[in-house]
Design brief:
It is a single chain. By secondary structure, this protein is an alpha/beta fold. It has a domain of 142 residues: 3-Layer(aba) Sandwich (Rossmann fold). It contains 6 helices and 9 strands; from the N terminus they run H-H-E-E-H-E-H-E-H-E-E-H-E-E-E. The strands form 2 sheets. Strands 5-4-3-6-7-8-9 form a 7-stranded mixed β-sheet. Strands 1-2 form a two-stranded antiparallel sheet. Strand 6, helix 6 and strand 7 form a beta-alpha-beta unit. The chain starts with a helix and ends in a 10-residue tail after the last strand. The structure holds S-adenosyl-L-homocysteine. S-adenosyl-L-homocysteine binds next to strand 2, helix 4 and strand 4.
């Protein structure tokens, strides 16, 4: 598949749609205008790639709606050079947005097929996270902690304590919490023991997978 001026036009349209839905962060909108989302999904969905829709990727997983990706990216308030842990690499589209925001990205994926596919694919587009990790997001990444920001892109049945513990003071954890539907939940770390919690609306994600034994 190629990237053409037609795709570029569709991306500009998508950015307008997201703006109308409440995305105002210009860096996030510019990332949406730049990243060739049609290359992240199966070619059979290509004609819909720039609609605000989710699509199946490999291993029964989905690429999130562009609005969801843009919303999470906006709420994270990523600043250039910040260390960001992403749980749920999936197609790598959210990873690409974080890289466009100049974050130093560590991305964990639980499904080997997706880990392999996306860690080969993203660098071909010039997107290079600091690390791709095949592992369990419930544990976070203790050896690289603390992080400025942690983003979870699968529905978590509960908030993993390890993730809160791996945040810098002043850091943000953004995690959709719930079973069938999730409440987008933001935790701000105020001090070693204090967290401020904000609930930011209902979303629908694929479930965060439990540890395999
Ligand atoms: N943000 C990505 C993926 C969304 S789907 C995109 O838009 O493409 C959620 C992803 O989280 C899936 O790839 C799934 O395999 C992964 N995942 C689920 N449980 C996980 C866990 N415990 N640790 C790490 N990744 C997990």
């Amino acid at each position: 598949m190629r990237d053409t001026t037609k795709h570029q036009g569709l991306r500009n349209q998508l950015a307008k749609v997201l703006e109308a839905k409440g995305i105002y962060d210009i860096k996030v909108l510019n990332a949406v205008r730049k990243i060739p989302r049609h290359l992240f999904i199966d070619s059979s969905f290509e004609s819909h790639a720039y609609q605000d829709k989710a699509f199946p990727i490999a291993a029964d997983q989905t690429i999130s709606h562009p609005f969801t990706v843009a919303f999470q990216s906006q709420v994270l308030e990523v600043k250039s050079g910040e260390k960001v842990l992403e749980i749920g690499t999936g197609s790598g589209y959210q990873t690409a947005v974080l890289l466009e925001l100049n974050a130093e990205v560590y991305s964990i994926e639980r499904q080997h097929e997706l880990f392999k596919k996306t860690s080969m694919f993203l660098p071909k587009l010039g997107y290079r996270p600091k690390r791709f990790i095949f592992g369990d997001g419930y544990k976070g990444l203790p050896e690289e902690a603390p992080f400025d920001k942690i983003i979870v892109t699968a529905g978590a049945p509960y908030v993993p304590k390890a993730l809160l513990g791996q945040l810098k003071i002043g850091g943000r954890l953004l995690i959709p919490v719930g079973d069938k539907e999730q409440v987008m939940t933001l935790f701000l770390r105020k001090s070693p023991k204090e967290f401020e919690k904000h609930e930011l609306g209902d979303f629908k994600f694929v479930p965060m997978l439990k540890k395999k034994n």
